[in-house]
């Protein structure tokens, strides 16, 4: 991977993987403390059993946050080129529990050139240790273009 990546370096179909992570109780507790979200579906085993789930469910927004581009191998190369995180969407397709190991991938889906910048839309997919897709969505970023003579 290049030391620096700007808009022109992204091509439709390029893929960037994030390091896998195994969900722990600490992830849930930290997220609950940070957000104040205290719904029992995330902390009460008995409640989850009564509701027909096999255990405490992960927070959807926690999972979406775990797809952050800054957590990928692109973090350092885009440090000087990313202008803004413009848009994000997520669909949660399967439940995630403590002990699940999650892996996420960003796939370049669309690149649109602007006059001095470019828009990059990425398809985001998160799978569990069984290869099941648990989250799919997209991220859209605004990147700087290479300045004349910089490349």
Task: Produce a short descriptive summary.
The chain is an alpha+beta fold and 151 residues long. The protein has helices at residues 25-35, 45-50, 60-65; strands at residues 15-17, 21-22, 82-92, 101-113, 117-127, 133-144. Strands 1, 2, 3, 4, 5 and 6 form a six-stranded antiparallel β-sheet that branches.
Determine and state the CATH class: Alpha Beta
CATH topology: Thiol Ester Dehydrase, Chain A
User: Number of helical segments?
Assistant: 3
The average pLDDT score comes to 92
Structural class based on helices, strands and sheet pairing: alpha+beta
Compute the gyration radius: what is it? 18 Å
Percent range of helical residues: 10-25%
Strand content: 25-35%
- Whole-number tally of structural domains: 1
Which stretches are poorly predicted, pLDDT < 50 over at least 5 residues? Answer: none
How far is it from the N-terminal to the C-terminal residue, by CA? 15 Å
What's the CATH superfamily, by name? Hotdog Thioesterase
Got a strand count? 6
CATH architecture label name: Roll
Order of helices and strands: EEHHHEEEE
Q: What gross morphology would you assign?
A: elongated
Biggest pleated sheet: 6 strands, antiparallel
List the helices and strands and how they pair.
Blueprint: E1 15-17, E2 21-22, H1 25-35, H2 45-50, H3 60-65, E3 82-92, E4 101-113, E5 117-127, E6 133-144
Antiparallel strand pairs: 1-4, 2-4, 3-6, 4-5, 5-6
Describe the structure.
The chain has 151 residues and is of the alpha+beta class. It has one domain: Thiol Ester Dehydrase, Chain A. The chain is built from three helices and six strands. Strands 1, 2, 3, 4, 5 and 6 form a six-stranded antiparallel beta sheet that branches. The longest helix has 11 residues, at 25-35. The chain is elongated and about 60 Å long. The model has no long low-confidence stretch (mean pLDDT 92).
């Amino acid at each position: 991977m290049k030391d620096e990546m700007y808009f022109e370096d992204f091509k439709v179909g390029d893929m960037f993987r994030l390091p896998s992570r195994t969900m722990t109780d600490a992830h849930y507790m930290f997220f609950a403390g940070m957000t104040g979200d205290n719904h029992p579906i995330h902390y009460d085993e008995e409640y989850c059993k009564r509701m027909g789930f096999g255990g405490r469910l992960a927070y959807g927004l926690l999972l979406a946050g775990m797809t952050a581009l800054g957590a990928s191998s692109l973090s350092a190369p885009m440090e000087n080129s990313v202008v803004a995180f413009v848009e994000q969407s997520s669909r949660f397709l399967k439940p995630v529990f403590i002990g699940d190991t999650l892996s996420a991938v960003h796939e370049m889906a669309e690149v649109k050139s602007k006059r001095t910048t470019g828009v990059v839309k990425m398809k985001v997919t998160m799978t569990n240790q069984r290869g099941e897709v648990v989250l799919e969505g997209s991220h859209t970023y605004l990147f700087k273009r290479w300045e004349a003579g910089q490349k």
